[in-house]
Amino acid sequence: MTRVIELQVNGTTYRVDVDEETSLLSVLRDHLDLTGAKYGCGEGQCGACTVLIGGLPRRSCITRVGVVGDKPITTIEGLSPGGGLHPLQRAFLDADALQCGYCTSGMILTAAALLETTPHPTEREIAHFMEGNICRCGTYLRIIAAIRQAAKMLKEARS
Amino acid sequence: MNTGARVSVFPQAEPERYELTSPPTHRFQPDRREFLKLAGGGIVVACVLKEVWAAQESGGSRRGFSEALPQEVSAWLHIGEDGVVTVYTGKVEVGQNTRTGLTQAVAEELRASPDSIHMVMGDTDLTPFDMGTFGSRSTPVMSPQLRRAACAAREMLIDLAADKWKIKRAGLVAIDGKITDPLTRRTVAYAELVKGQKLAKAIPAEDPLTPASEWKVMGKPQPKVDGRDFVTGRHRYASDLKVPGMLYGRVLRPNAFGAMLVSLDAREAKAMPGVTIVQDGDFVGVAAATPEAATRALAALRAEWKSSTQPSGRELFDDLKKNTVEGEGWEGRSDHTVGSIDKGRAEAKHQLRATYTVAYIAHAPLEPRTAVAEWKDGKLAVWTGTQRPFGVRTELAQAFRLPEDHVRVRVPDTGGAYGGKHTGEAAVEAARLSRAAGRPVKLQWTREEEFTWAYFRPAGVIDVAGWLRDDGAVTAWEFHNYNSGASAIATPYDIPNQHIQFHPARSPLRQGSYRALAATANHFARESHMDDLAHLVKMDPLEFRLKNLKDARLRAVFEAAAQKFGWAARSKSSKGQGFGIAGGIEKGGYVATCAEVSADAGTGSVRIVHAVTAFDCGAVVNPEQLRNQIEGANVMGIGGALFEAIEFENGSILNGRFSRYRLPRFSDVPSIEVMLVDRKDQVSAGAGETPIVGLAPAVGNAIFDATGVRLRSLPMAPKGLKV
């Protein structure tokens, strides 16, 4: 059952020796030491484990590593490859859109996917798209504000 | 002991820590002389608790110090030769942003940039003993102590500058990390002043502090310390740590609470390579090289458990009232009588009795309990997310029969707690597995384990009776809380005749602290009932409250919230719209919340549309983080108000996962406005807890306004409104 799997993570090719049934979350965290994605529930209900697979937000805790194939994976560690902050990261800080911060990686990556398809989301669109991500500290309104702020920053950067 | 007539017995600051064990008998501390050794050169200021200082100064005996002595140093700070200020406190950061608030406090008094200050928190080898981070005590207690230490350090730096320049110290000022002589305009940086020094000073907790009106760093927004690490994924929670050679642990849980292990067949698991299996009494666990291998080994264990019949949720509230305990259980009863209920009844025209209930709910911090344990030379090191690093150290020392100085507990900033992480279960389990495996072990609880084997906010039953005159004056008030707790059980209203009692009960589930403790339950019952009384005499709910209320600070937040909300001018523009108000006092904070709901009695849907919370916690330390806490408390409060409830049957939790236990999500959140009543003339109170108490009754009162139906159970609408 065990085999070597190749993964494209944050622009780097990794070869990991794991069972293909292993969750992507475990591979990222325990094998590659990319711990930005968090375990929150193990059933895809809270969004703390969200990563981008081929640009789409996916629950890595219920994604078997064997099904990822050669699709590129982006984790929070790779969101801003240059080492600076992505506009969403900047905006989350500016809006104080976190308390304990445990949900933050998943929130930011989900929001990044939203802004890819919907560059200027309304509050309602944000709430709808982010519904699967839980912030137990209750910073939802600040997260919405941060995403809108990041949308503005991205627009300015484009123009 | 006071043996006078009937005594009011309201519990003091920390009434409901029933999940805690009794305090340890030994607390080993680094000797104060060791501070410099630990810290290198520079200057050190240690903050000594006032009582201990007084005894030492007066040459008094050290009587009673067996408890007090190890606690004498409550915090200390060091200014190193590189100018870095390192502050040591046993408090921990769990999302409430106390790391930032305490950094501001030191920066303020030291006249230094927050960036130059590094907080070492929750490390039992490095930080002084601390009971724990709970009860909203960091801001009112720890912050002033750190400010005093910083203040003393500043004075020492001024002395050093005066010596250096061979002038009198008067007139020298500390600004921006430097001492300045205004006459000659020369300056010297702190780093330069402390170079080559090895000065240590202990100070009493009495030095003058900068008044709030003159604050330059405190009282202003300050971004979250280390915020960048959280948005980039760089921060390492306990669950993210990896130490060389580390294994992953899992624990075999019984099928019911209190079950006993009858037999264990571990042959299959034992045959798996690299798997360690531990059976120690009823504890069974495994450790393996990967989480998957540990999970496979766990699944291969065949265990037989024996459990006894246990109560179920259906009978909960009857059970609690039937099973009160006097003089035993986790907390003694409290009983408070003023005047005479009979007299108040005689003066009244109306009376209303009702029973309120609150369900068990889960803290559900997004990071479940996790620990990494490592043994080396008979000593145990543990990293874990807990609100009580020293309490967990004691648990470990007791569990493994070690002296406490052989155990080190470190708490990385943690992924949520809300009163739910006072205990060290995962730490003890990880350490047990690690000892057997001879390797470090990480144990992260699953969500189901966190829902089942941690502890819950207590359920409770509250019987309330109120009597009042036609003019709205409440003449008598009777209030009996069964099991949920005594926090904020006292009424802030001026009622001449009162009987208020807390009845501890035998809880069928393990229960413990929760954000604001029973203040949520007691405010829900009291403020719902006050609302009913107002309607009984056809008075406006706000006017009715103010008529019965003298406390100026509580009146002020009621008025502030009402004004922002537009209470006086409110009018229903659509069917199902309703407005409610509620408020109270707890842990030195004054809170009032107004809520607007949209409720549809036909479909059963209910939505909170808008909420306004006015809050007075004395002088505001960090307005933006305070707003953040108040908003977050309101959001967390939505869950307990409307839909969160633990369901259980015969020793099992039925809904212990996120797909079965509904938490507030984006779509549940109303627009929230926060009014800060900044009282620079008042000491700063903690603010992480109290703002949660107003939401549930304000929403209940708004639902009543919308539908005419009074909901007296939390959660009020677990499956929609049934009206």
Q: Outline of this structure?
A:
The complex is a heterodimer of chains A (159) and B (723). Chain A contains five helices and five strands; from the N terminus they run E-E-H-E-E-E-H-H-H-H.
Number of strands of chain B: 29
Q: What characterizes the major β-sheet of chain A?
A: 5 strands, mixed
Subunit organisation of the chains: heterodimer
Task: State the fourth-level CATH superfamily of the largest domain in chain B.
Answer: Aldehyde oxidase/xanthine dehydrogenase, molybdopterin binding domain
Counting structural domains of chain B, the number is 3
SSE topology sketch:
The complex is a heterodimer of chains A (159) and B (723).
Chain A: E1 2-9, E2 12-19, H1 24-31, E3 50-53, E4 56-59, E5 72-74, H2 87-94, H3 104-117, H4 123-129, H5 140-158
Chain B: H1 34-39, E1 42-48, H2 50-57, H3 65-68, E2 73-79, E3 85-89, H4 98-110, E4 117-121, H5 138-165, E5 173-175, E6 178-181, E7 186-189, H6 190-194, E8 198-204, H7 227-231, E9 247-251, E10 260-265, H8 267-270, E11 276-280, E12 283-288, H9 291-300, E13 302-306, H10 316-322, E14 334-338, H11 341-347, E15 350-358, E16 370-376, E17 379-384, H12 389-399, E18 407-410, H13 425-437, E19 441-444, H14 447-453, E20 460-468, E21 474-482, E22 497-503, H15 519-536, H16 541-547, H17 552-565, E23 577-586, E24 589-600, E25 605-616, H18 623-643, E26 648-649, E27 652-653, E28 671-676, H19 695-707, E29 713-714
Parallel strand pairs in B: 1-8, 3-4, 9-19, 15-29, 17-18, 21-22, 25-28
Antiparallel strand pairs in B: 1-2, 2-3, 5-6, 6-7, 9-12, 10-13, 11-12, 14-22, 15-20, 16-17, 16-19, 20-21, 23-24, 24-25, 26-27
Helix pairs in contact in B: 4-5, 12-13, 15-19, 18-19
